[in-house]
UniProtKB/TrEMBL annotation:
Belongs to the sulfotransferase 1 family. Pfam families: Sulfotransfer_1. Residues 30-186 form the Sulfotransferase domain. Its EC number is 2.8.2.-. This is Sulfotransferase. Disulfide bonds join 149-161. It is an enzyme of class 2 (transferase). Keywords: Disulfide bond, Glycoprotein, Transferase. PANTHER family: HEPARAN SULFATE GLUCOSAMINE 3-O-SULFOTRANSFERASE 6 (PTHR10605:SF62), HEPARAN SULFATE SULFOTRANSFERASE (PTHR10605). 3'-phosphoadenylyl sulfate binds at residues 41, 49, 166-170. SUPFAM superfamilies: P-loop containing nucleoside triphosphate hydrolases. GO terms for molecular function: [heparan sulfate]-glucosamine 3-sulfotransferase activity. It comes from Acanthochromis polyacanthus (spiny chromis).
Length: 203
């Protein structure tokens, strides 16, 4: 990481650190003062989103249910499939809490990031002890994209949405498959709510 000068914050974004066993030990040995921001969304939707992303790279991929179940008859979930495993947030957080106290974390709701981007960004700025510069004024809801976009990104006078790979339509997954997955995640979600002191409302 580059040296951080007075008045600067060095930021780094690697989603996979949250699920990487060695990451917390390495991060704390670099700086004990690191603040950690974790964006989480309903793990069921997250799994489908993950699958959708892989599907664009490998169109011949087996169906979602083929990958999600170890045994389709008993409904046994395949926790070795990364799209499923990543959503067991409580388990990943447990590993991080061996190194960092909860006060070092901010958990951002992926759902609220869509419905109230300025509100979530307000929490992020407070957590980083920054002046609230990004506010409601910076966002508008783009009907075509179906997501909030930036009115005027820095260095540009034109509005900007995130790229095509963000906010893609998801394939239709049979409802019984999603229900089974929802049952699977329920205890892990509850544990995660307890650990973070925040109910994300995924049930
Ligand atoms: N404003 C805005 N515009 C577009 N997309 C938005 C926005 N806010 C949140 N999202 C959701 O972000 C999801 C993609 O984020 P990822 O976590 O996959 O991004 S990354 O690959 O880790 O960079 C993406 O998931 P999918 O809907 O599955 O594509 C979106 O639902």
């Amino acid at each position: 990481m580059p040296r951080t000068l007075e008045g600067q914050i060095t930021m780094e974004k690697t989603p996979s650190y949250f699920i990487t066993k060695e990451a917390p030990r390495r991060v704390i040995s670099m700086s004990r003062h690191t603040r950690l921001i974790v964006v989480v969304r309903d793990p069921v939707t997250r799994a489908v989103s993950d699958y959708t992303q892989t599907l664009t790279k490998s169109p011949g991929l087996p169906s979602f249910q083929n990958l999600a179940f170890r045994n389709a008859t008993t409904g046994l979930i395949d926790t070795s499939w990364s799209a499923v495993r990543i959503g067991i947030y409580a388990k990943h957080l447990e590993n991080w809490l061996r190194y960092f106290p909860l006060s070092r974390f901010l958990f951002v709701s992926g759902e609220r990031l869509v419905t109230d981007p300025a509100g979530e960004m307000g929490r992020v700025q407070d957590f980083l002890r920054l002046k609230r510069v990004v506010t409601d004024k910076h966002f508008y809801f783009n009907q075509t994209k179906g997501f909030p976009c930036l009115k005027k990104p820095e260095g540009s006078s034109r509005p900007r949405c995130l790229g095509k790979s963000k906010g893609r339509p998801h394939p239709q997954i049979p409802s019984e498959v999603l229900l089974r997955l929802r049952d699977f995640y329920r205890p892990f979600n509850l544990k995660f709510y307890q650990m973070t002191g925040h109910n994300f409302g995924w049930d």
